[in-house]
Amino acid sequence: MGSGLRLGRIAGIEIHADWSLLVIFVLIASSLAMGLFPEWHPDWSLGLIWATALGAAVALFASVLVHELSHALVGRAWGIAVRRITLFVFGGVAQMEQEPPNWRAEFWMAIIGPVTSAVLGFLCFLAAGFSISPAAGEFEDPAQLFATLGVGGTLLMWLGQVNFVLAAFNLVPAFPLDGGRVLRALMWAISGDFRRATRWASGAGQAFAWFLIATGVAMILGARIPLFGGGLVGGVWIAFIGWFLNNAAALSYRQLLIREALRDVPVARLMLTQIATVPPDLSVSELVDRYLLRSDQRAFPVVADGRLEGMVCLHEVRKLDRAAWDRTAVRDIMVPADKLASAGPEEGASDVLSRLAGRDLNQLPVLEDGRVRGLVRREDILKWLALYADLGVEA
Predict the structure, then answer these.
(1) Average pLDDT over every residue of 118-146
(2) Partners of 266 in the beta sheet?
(3) In what order do the strands lie in the sheet with 5-10?
(4) Domain definitions of the chain by residue range
(5) Cα separation of 35 and 188, whole Å?
(6) DSSP of 290-305, one letter per residue?
(7) Is the peptide bond between 365 and the residue preceding it cis, with omega within 30 degrees of 0?
């Protein structure tokens, strides 16, 4: 698995938080505790303000998680496997194992996210309304109204605003934002060409990204931009978001080209066939001395009577106390076969690469009738691409 913290599983989907999430969590909580909430509640204690700010930051990422879960569940309804959602510094991403099969699946998967955020925003405002005193209607200044809110009402009022902003931002027709995916779906429907639709949507995403970068630079230089404001910190963030979106848009199109280049390449053409397998009763110390130290193979199929029992890697060895190597068998630390992803020799390399990326794996066993025929590694697929594929971005 990649770096980060596993939060659990919802509806069969692994939920992870990237360590970069800590950065935005601290920024949100501190900006609320030192800015907005003291303005709304000048009579609150410092401890109450910080507790509410921390709760607001947690609630925001819970909202982002619900947004991403909506994508994943609609994708599942269209037959698209989503096994993992990762929350990170810019929000979240549902990691699909394959592209949508048609433009309708793409459209509904994309549009459900902003719709979910808008519904959450409405529900938060509705719930916050119940905490407002009837006498608050007499206030002409919104600040007086906000001051009457308790902790729950404050959280809901702020979270409602943020969810509406999240919905609006994601509807911007700039790939890979949800609005950009909606745009790709519509272009796909019109042109009938998924690659061309992706190129157009990616171009729109990069254009929007460069607009954000230019806006951020202008703000850094002292300009005040309508809707964006001004200032050094705000300008740096806007430019950074633009840079991130530009890279994401370009990468999304390049990933499509890679999938197309691998579409007709079978795993049998790329897999390693001269591999070492190990018996389940082999001791871990023998595994290290006879196999791990004597080859560059990092993962070893565990085979008994010609059939795959599991896989053991350096990762499993490192988790075991060194003093227990001699008395521990490989079967005690291996990943069992029923928990392993695998590939078939005639399967397309494109699908296997997506599976490797979606599950954050470096290799898969290649099986035929339950017997190991080889290993397919991410590095071998990338080597083939470097040697044989033309990944230029022209249409």
Answers:
(1) 73
(2) 348
(3) 5-10, 13-17, 82-88, 91-96
(4) 5-171, 189-262, 267-388
(5) 45
(6) IIGGGSS--EEEEEET
(7) no
Burial class (CB in 10 A: 0-12, 13-18, 19+), 45: exposed
Whole-number Å distance between alpha carbons of 244 and 236: 12
User: What are the two backbone dihedrals, phi and then psi, of residue 120, each rounded to the nearest 5 degrees?
Assistant: -60, -45
Position 122, amino acid: F
- Catalytically active residues are 68
Answer whether 0.90 is exceeded by the pTM: no
- Judged by DSSP in three states, 230 sits in coil
Q: What is the DSSP string of 308-332?
A: EEEEEEHHHHHTS-GGGTTT-BHHH
Place of tokens 């004597």: 294
Report the alpha-carbon distance of residue 357 to residue 377 in Å, rounded: 11
102-115 pLDDT, tens digit per residue, is 999 999 999 999 99
What residue has token string 């705000």? 234
Question: Who contacts 346 (Cβ-Cβ below 8 Å, separation ≥6)?
Answer: 266, 267, 268
Distance CA 214, CA 369 (A): 57
- What is the C-alpha separation between 163 and 114, in angstroms, rounded? 9
Whole-angstrom CA distances from 25 to 17, 21, 62, 200, 378 are 11, 6, 12, 34, 33
Rounded to 10°, the helix 378-388/232-262 angle is 80
CA pair distance 306, 302, nearest whole angstrom: 10
User: Locate tokens 């390399």: which residue?
Assistant: 349
Could you tell me the two tokens for 45? Answer: 């204690």
Angle at the Cα of 378 from the Cα atoms of 388 and 203, rounded to 5 degrees: 65
| Measured torsion, CA atoms of residues 112, 116, 118, 124, in degrees rounded to the nearest 10 | 180
Task: Specify the CATH architecture of the domain 267-388.
Answer: Roll (3.10)
Alpha-carbon dihedral 33, 39, 41, 42, rounded to 10 degrees: 100
User: Alpha-carbon distance 363 to 355, whole Å?
Assistant: 10
The C-alpha atoms of residue 271 and residue 168 are separated, in whole angstroms, by: 45
Question: What's phi and psi for 339, nearest 5 deg?
Answer: -105, 5
Q: What CA dihedral angle connects 343, 344, 345 and 348, to 10 degrees?
A: -70
User: Length of the chain, please?
Assistant: 395
Question: What are the structure tokens assigned to 235, written together?
Answer: 């300008």
Higher pLDDT, 212 or 257: 212
Mean pLDDT along residues 359-379: 86
Q: Could you tell me if residue 227 is left (phi over 0), alpha (psi between -120 and 50 degrees) or otherwise beta?
A: left
